[in-house]
Amino acid sequence: MMKTIEEMMVELDVVDRKSRALLDDLDDGQLAVPYSPGVNPPIWELGHSAFFYEYFLLRKFGESGARMPGYDDVWDSFEISHKHRWRPGVVPEKGAMFDYYRGVLGEVREKFGGRALDDEEGYLLRYVIHHHQMHIESLLWSRQTLGYPAPSFATLKAAPPKGSGISGDAQVEGGDYLMGMPPLSSGEFSFDNERPSHRVRVESFSISKTLVSNREFLEFVVAGAYQNEALWDFGGKCWLLEGEGGKREMPTYWRRDADGSWQHRKFDQWEELPLDAPVLHVSVWEAEAFCRWAGRWLPTEPEWEAAARGPEALRYPWGETMDSTRVDMDGTFFGTAPVDAFSESASPAGCLQMLGTAWEWTSSQFLPYAGFEIDMYHYMSVLQFGDHRVTKGGSCATCSSLIRNSYRQAFLPGRTDVFTGFRTCAR
Q1: Is the pTM of this model over 0.85?
Q2: If you ran DSSP here, which 8-state letter would residue 101 be given?
Q3: Is the Cβ–Cβ distance between 348 and 372 less than 8 Å?
Q4: DSSP assigned state of 85
């Protein structure tokens, strides 16, 4: 459903406030992050987000001149390669970036706030706000990657919701299930890779009501699964050898203390591993090896959507309206709640936390649907088609106003810096 200009301006204020909070508490040394394939310089992240507002809104519906002359090729992610964002003198210093950022968002508020928008203006404004939300999530996983403190708006110190005791598998009846989103002419907002909606035949199957927990994954680790080559396919075996010291032996951000206890790192703090919480920051290779060990399998994308949407093709597992109290999203608990918490989030099949907490790996490649048409930003999807895997559901770091059951995210199978987890199906 399309949102009102008042709702979009509220979203703009929230995304602006969180973006500033993610950079304001970092000193110059922390802003000068070391090169990493999964990280961007924080100053570039925010400048790039502002460039989207300028390029797709201000220049299209107003003055065409650059607000920061000479920097279009710096802020445009497809003009400057990832590694060149670290070159000295390329990205401006924090003060100049913030002047540009504040100026652009100020123009957007002045030009579009408080008046009715036509369909194109409304669509593009929502598009660039959602793009900005994506970069909030990447800034959050960057802070985790770099071992920086949790952001000021996180509620990690608050007690997460308690578990419900729900466990076991949910049964999903076979049938024709709706996937994707209708065309933009319907008034429904979506990204190009979600369109067009279509029906797909799904055979009956059983799927876990909960995400795989740290307790379950620890059993896999202790059983020597990382050393058992029979559990890993060729891609997984190659990935194992990329770990520090020559071979991976446990999930990223895990360690075993001298006394034998297991810990994980949450931002800059090493803590006792919460056994009832979901395993996070695992690659698809680890998820698939776990499935082989447990005698189960990763759901396909159609199976996942069938379990989340049900025969009525719900927008969210519980209905047609987002309720952020039912999910671990927006940078709140960061996956510290038990896997059986948020029982009020249950899907028609009875699955919990299908939105939020962790991007859930599927066994499906990220490919276009039949009838796919490229959106106004040509690179939103096409560069990921083929060699990326589909993940579903959003994570604890995802903005709740961005996500829905049909939303598709693509990650390379070896990624562990993102808040990824998984649930399994019974053979």
Answers
A1: yes
A2: H
A3: no
A4: G
